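Our consortium's second objective concerns turning raw sequence data into structural hypotheses that experimental partners can test. To show how far this objective has progressed, the report includes one record in full. It was chosen at random from the queue rather than selected for favorable results. The single chain below, 231 residues long, was entered without modification.
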Amino acid sequence: MPALAIDFTNLPLLDQELADASGVLLAADTIPAEVEALVRALAGELRGLGLDAWRETVDPYLLVELQRVTLGALLALDAEDEAAGAAALEISLEAIRDILYDAQGAAAVDALSPRELTRRLRDATQASTQEVAELLRVRKRTLERWLSGESEPQRDDAMRLAMAARIVDQLRHAMTGRGAMLWFATPLTPNVPGGPDGPHDDRAPRDLLADPQAAPALLGLAAAARRSDAS
């Protein structure tokens, strides 16, 4: 197993190394030295990684999740029961791979054109053109122009479209398209990051799609919905 070199522009390669390590652990009662070296290399790279480097390709929220899960992997290396440690580490590696899958999905969405994003959002939510237009706060005719490629969204419209598409890419793992549309319309509860600031603030995710400060929280909530469903 080669030494780990994290390259956020080549996440499939990193995923393959982790898959190989996970496969080795499935057949082992202890943690092989090469797997331990892989985990420690991953932790070392993450220690020096800033949010700016991660933000170039994926959501900062995923970096926080990756750091948290990697810490769990490090703790598994020091477990007194070696068999239990190997089992816990295998779970951690699979969790890391799940995060990398999310990262690759986000990058793939970001690479789409506005026309492709609009189609992807409409198809994934199984919503009508009118419903998607209302979600994005534009006229139906405007959305139809995006779908046909006659025009492209600008400024806040572009931000709403991109954020909605990235959120749905997470929610589709945990709920139906109709469920995702309901998620956008459901007011956030107090004390949730990005949620209401006071008792009379009934903002819903759809109200925050053009707010860059709310983006990490919204993406985090969508990813949490997926992870909750998976567990």
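The partners drew two points from this record. The radius of gyration is 20 Å. The CA atoms of residues 47 and 215 lie 24 Å apart. Both points have been shared with the crystallography group to help prioritize constructs.
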